[in-house]
Fold these 2 entries.
Entry 1:
Amino acid sequence: MRLSQVMKCLKDSGEMDLFTNDPEITGIEMDSRHVGKGSLFVAIKGFQADGHSFIEQAVKNGAAAVVGEEDLQMDIPYIRVADSRTSLGKLASCFYSHPSKEHKIVGITGTNGKTTTSYILKHILETAGRTCSLLGTVSYVINNEVYKPTNTTPDALQIQKMLSESMDEFVVMEISSHALEQSRTEGLQIDYGLFTNLAHDHLDYHKNMDSYFIDKKKIFSLLKKEGKAVVNLYNSWGEKMAEDLQKENVPLMMLGDENCCSIEDVQLNGKTVFILKMNDKRYKIKFPLPGYHNVYNAAMAFLTGMDMGLDPDNMIKSLASFPGIPGRFETITHPTGAKFVVDYAHTKDAFEYCLETARQQGAERIFHIYGFRGGRDQSKREEMIKVSARYSNQFYLTADDLNDETEEKMIGELHSLNEQFGNGKGQVIADRTLAIQKAWQQAKKNDWIFITGKGPESYKKPFKLPAESDLETLKFLQESGRHQGVI
Ligand SMILES: CC(=O)N[C@H]1[C@@H](OP(=O)(O)OP(=O)(O)OC[C@H]2O[C@@H](n3ccc(=O)[nH]c3=O)[C@H](O)[C@@H]2O)O[C@H](CO)[C@@H](O)[C@@H]1O[C@H](C)C(=O)N[C@@H](C)C(=O)N[C@H](CCC(=O)O)C(=O)O
Ligand SMILES: Nc1ncnc2c1ncn2[C@@H]1O[C@H](COP(=O)(O)OP(=O)(O)OP(=O)(O)O)[C@@H](O)[C@H]1O
């Protein structure tokens, strides 16, 4: 494709300056290290580095043209734009022939429930015999091939490339607020935009809840002409979102609105069973994942499936056979019958939903093992400890992924938070595997032990026990118990 053809996508928005020759463009790159002969290199001012300082390297690697924000003179075509990130999405969409058009795309945003809802939707679509790609925190799945994700929502280049490679009819993707704020979704067009909820998280990045909300709301600017918003009203931010969208005349389906679809008769002791009332019809849904939060996730997926024209009876069967998601309420039963749950909860709301679920399931004692990511939103830590102290009989604070924080600083912070807000129930055990071992050794019948925050993710540093994730630690303890004849 000639540069002038790729540039047409920017020309429309008046972002293009003149250039003198028209080379053949073999690919678009945002990382100078990936540039090859004929690439168009887009220089981005990032949080860690400035892509403009790698232009020379990109040219050495064979770049045929460069897009950037600075006023530069070069021997190859240089196109100055106001915002490289938005230009990247537009250019990539153009280069890959606007692949959003080729699929029915569901974008899911919200603080909690994106991964779960996306897995449920993929499952019900596939049960109905439809093909579905998935882009999200746990994995990217394209044409049934599974890839390790870079981000929850990949960069604009990857999005457009994967959409163009996907031969699946549907694409279900998690859309993070970071991605929306960083214009990774520029050039993407979606058929459904789902908003699950908003809760205190990522305020290191978004500064306050209002600006976090505004970034999340950007998902609806991606809707195709005939696209629809699906909003969960069972939380106050969902109500606000729906109100805003109604004012803006965005076609909207609301979970929790009597005139559309509402949840009734929820049973949570044992299996999750509830009624979804849609217009005059009532659908009885049985869902294997416990907890009220999963009622919302299943209902959001069902509502979207109904609008897609899927058969409700088929969806009900599909939901009943949902196989679960790695690291989302994954349960291992201790020899005493105690339940060990590995979960990805890392917000106050998610803690509440999880720990409350144990109460609903008849837990006599609740133990909770968790930590905080270093270098991430520190303002949420106090609220999370308070919830944990309210619901659990005892909790252990461990060193989670430290990122840029030192272990010493994190441990000091854990002690301090525990003293202030732990209600005398907390203990700092920095080694996560030893904290899990301690809980394993003291577990009794009818105890529920939650290990939260990492889900299926690997530990970033080695701990005492030979395991690389929470699940592996539990399996190690299970195996060791068997070898020692402990039943
Ligand atoms: C803070 C942040 O969000 N950073 C994201 C951002 O990176 P950046 O643009 O700042 O990159 P940078 O390292 O400063 O580099 C700037 C530019 O120089 C280029 N470069 C760099 C080096 C070089 O030698 N040559 C070169 O050309 C880079 O390719 C880049 O184009 O854009 C990248 C591409 O999209 C993201 O991968 C990266 O996510 C980082 C890794 C990250 O951890 N982000 C988290 C906060 C995040 O986005 N999380 C959400 C999920 C949140 C949730 O809901 O839980 C997500 O969507 O994953
Ligand atoms: N609808 C919901 N409301 C509140 N909490 C939820 C909901 N669904 C799941 N959770 C809790 O949040 C955790 C993360 O869920 P999930 O992975 O589906 O969310 P996510 O939005 O993809 O999160 P992340 O962006 O951090 O990957 C779950 O392990 C559970 O504890």
Note: Residues 3-95 form a domain with the Udp-n-acetylmuramoylalanyl-d-glutamate--2,6- Diaminopimelate Ligase; Chain: A, domain 1 fold (CATH 3.40.1390.10).
Entry 2:
Amino acid sequence: MIRFEQVGKVYPDGTSAVDGLTFEVEKGELVTLVGPSGCGKTTTMMMVNRLIEPTSGRILVDGEDISTVDPVRLRRRIGYVIQQVGLFPHRTVLDNTATVPALVGWKRDRARRRAAELLDLVGLDPKTYGPRYPSQLSGGERQRVGVARALAADPPVLLMDEPFGAVDPVVRERLQNEFLKLQSTVRKTVLLVTHDIEEAVRMGDRIAVYGKGRIEQYDRPGAVLGTPATPYVAQFVGADRGLKRLSVTAIEPEDLEEPPTAHVGEPARAAAERLTGLGARWAVVLNEEGDLHGWVAADALHGAGDGGTVGGLARRMDAWVPVGAPLKQAFSEMLQHDAGWVAVLDGARFLGVLTPAKLHEALRRSVDADARGVGRGEVSFDSVADA
Ligand SMILES: Nc1ncnc2c1ncn2[C@@H]1O[C@H](COP(=O)(O)OP(=O)(O)OP(=O)(O)O)[C@@H](O)[C@H]1O
């Protein structure tokens, strides 16, 4: 989809920004370009929409050498999101979002309808936010408008330069998650520039780690963390790269334990006896549909009088994550709620719990899979126990 062939850029003052860049981004893939300041990430990106022209090599988009494509026509196919967002201060959020469709000749009504759809998609209610001006938004909201605007004309390619750089870490993580969710539905071909290795491994299907003006390693996040190609990459990803793996390893159903369960309507006495028989100190409480209701302590069940039900003694389960979430999120929930385990849900349905021991196993399996260069799902569970 985007192909760099021996691309180089020397600025007029003689600065060589990048040299011999050769890599390919597949259709629907999100590639992060990561590296320290001045290593050539932005130059790389701006060559794709011809805001900067390479001095050697060529870039192909969809098989077409872009030096032969009219820049204006090219940019219609390429959405661009930058850190400073660059919204027009005197236009409403709705009109800002409708800018590109209007530019490419859509009728005003159609452009605005599309803009409203896009605002909705990035989590901003068009009725509330559409009429506002950019100065009436928070930094995170402005950033979302930037993303909506870039997507408005439905370009197949999206360039994002430090798109979440201007907001605090909490908002940043939320925006990253929202964008990943969005990307899983819109499947754009994305180049995302960041200097933050954590962001690069979280967001990227593949990562290009830049040294000065060149790519030191181009691979899946797990491989970059697991087997850094050069000492430079190892230093850049940091000594705590094992921890960073928590961000890129998803919780899968086979990671889960099945704890004792009890049902909302079940008599407390019966549940208490069952837990004693199992030697369990607590149980997960489910409703009739198998959805999570909460949890209950064995002590509480034992203390209940006749006629008490499990539902009456159940407590809310605060520590839970959706299946497929990264291990880091599960770990963070455990710490935040001082819990020894987290519930894992598929929608509302209870799938099981993740314990610290299982979390460790999942991490080991992910290391194992990357060491062998195979997908995680193809590694048998036994191989971890043997490792
Ligand atoms: N117009 C220019 N003229 C001369 N040199 C430039 C120009 N623009 C960028 N450079 C230089 O090219 C190199 C790469 O810059 P670039 O902006 O691509 O890096 P970057 O990795 O995006 O950095 P940052 O993370 O700080 O934005 C740097 O040494 C920079 O000083």
Note: The chain has a mean pLDDT of 86.
